[in-house]
Amino acid sequence: MVENIHNEFIKVLKKDISNRISHNDLSRKIFLSYKTAVFKDDQETEYKIKSCIQERIKTPFSSIQVTGSSKTGFSFFNRTLFTIGVSDLDVSIINLDLYNSYLEAAHKETRGFTDLTKFPLFNQERTDKQFLKNLQKGFINPFYMPESQLKKNWLGFFREISNKYTNKFGSINGAIYASEYFFEQKQVECIEEFERNTKAYDSLSGKV
User: Fold this and answer.
1) pTM of this prediction?
2) pLDDT score recorded for residue 4
């Protein structure tokens, strides 16, 4: 399914970085313009998954974007190739109204973030720090939210989708961005990681 499309992304990244293309422009090109690697030869599945999300969450179809190794065919931080049936499909939904509704829910559940006990434990640490860190970057991962029915519905919905596509993905996860600006800025982290050591990705080139 992914074939060697990751090589194309690596070549583009190296070329544009050497030509001093801005990180923001490169982020927009890779993550908002280029086709998704895992759906290169399976666009029907991409459409079905996005349609399912659109129908349930009531968000514009174009606001649903794919990130992570699913998008490029490789992980920027782990420097590993996407593996069918093992790697996750990371979905980002760029929608300010949706972002605000989940932020308001978190605000209410914690009484203005004064009652942090509402945040669950993950790896023996409360998730409030990660949640607030994500807010600073303009996005919400509902997994780190305080416990609420809204959170349960979100995680339950993505579990349902994941169960339909276990032959393709380890799981399907969703995050919510306040704007396209914040989405691009988050993906800039991937570009920066790549630029720090472009040679580290040479071992991925040519692999299928």
Assistant:
1) 0.93
2) 75
